Amino acid sequence: MFFIFESKEKKNEFIYLWREFKQSKPDEYMKKTLLLLFTLLLALSAQSQNSLRLMTYNIKNANGMDDVCDFQRIADVINHIHPEVVALQELDSMTHRSGQKYVLGEIAGRTQMHAYFAPAIDYDGGKYGIGLLTKEIPVSLKTMTLPGREEARALIMAEFDNYIYCCTHLSLTEEDRMASLELIKDFAAAHKKPFFLAGDLNAEPESSFIKYLQQDFQILSDVNQHTFPAPAPTETIDYITALKQNMKGFTVTSAQVVNEPVASDHRPLVVVLEQK
């Protein structure tokens, strides 16, 4: 099991209390045990009143690096993070290669989250695309087609009361990524709420595309933590970002790549924000 702490202060507090607990005398045992358990519950809380936990994960249809398709394994990764919303890429819906299963629905049922799928292409008797898992039912949902010469791409947007979260999986071709970004910027311009864009962008931090993206979007995830390939990552191609002009009221308290080397060929990203 791994822990995601809301802040460095909470992590340090937990470490201090754990050390105190180990050094407790017998007559102090019960008191410090209760205090430790209370602190641990706070540290593992799925959310606080003012926090927002965002996640993105390219799950490769739940096909792991061990060549095993395991929906529960992907669900376990998500359940340990307790995100409010998850952007997922590489999802089959009713294809023959995935046993005519609705992959996003399989994971939604195991995480008790709401599922929203955006097909990008017809594939092998079904659909292939991206999706969102959300704890709350969105106020509204929108999808749009994005360019991709190797295959069409898509974006899905979920609007909530206080923010908007988008998932995408961009083209392998930079010209198509650049064209996609222009469409996304036009799409975002119509909204005043904090606007988050997450997913597999198929571009590394030093690329022209990411530098162009940063003119309008702030990268919230840690680009120094690589995401691909999962067993021993050497590349950063997955991101969580925010439109700069709408970012008021949120600050990043933690950003990390989760140490999961087997469940997919990518590692998941999680960013925790605090709303002022």
From TrEMBL:
SUPFAM superfamilies attached to this UniProt entry: DNase I-like
Coiled-coil ranges per UniProt: none
Position of the signal peptide: none
Any one GO BP annotation for this protein: GPI anchor biosynthetic process
GO CC annotations, alphabetized: membrane
UniProt cross-references to Pfam families, sorted A to Z: Exo_endo_phos
Recorded GO MF terms: catalytic activity
Gene3D superfamilies for the chain: Endonuclease/exonuclease/phosphatase (3.60.10.10)
Residue span, Endonuclease/exonuclease/phosphatase domain: 55-266
Domain of life: Bacteria
PANTHER family linked: CALCOFLUOR WHITE HYPERSENSITIVE PROTEIN PRECURSOR, ENDONUCLEASE_EXONUCLEASE_PHOSPHATASE DOMAIN-CONTAINING PROTEIN
Name of the protein this chain belongs to: Metallophosphoesterase
Source organism of the structure: Phocaeicola vulgatus
Phylogenetic placement of the source organism: Bacteria, Pseudomonadati, Bacteroidota, Bacteroidia, Bacteroidales
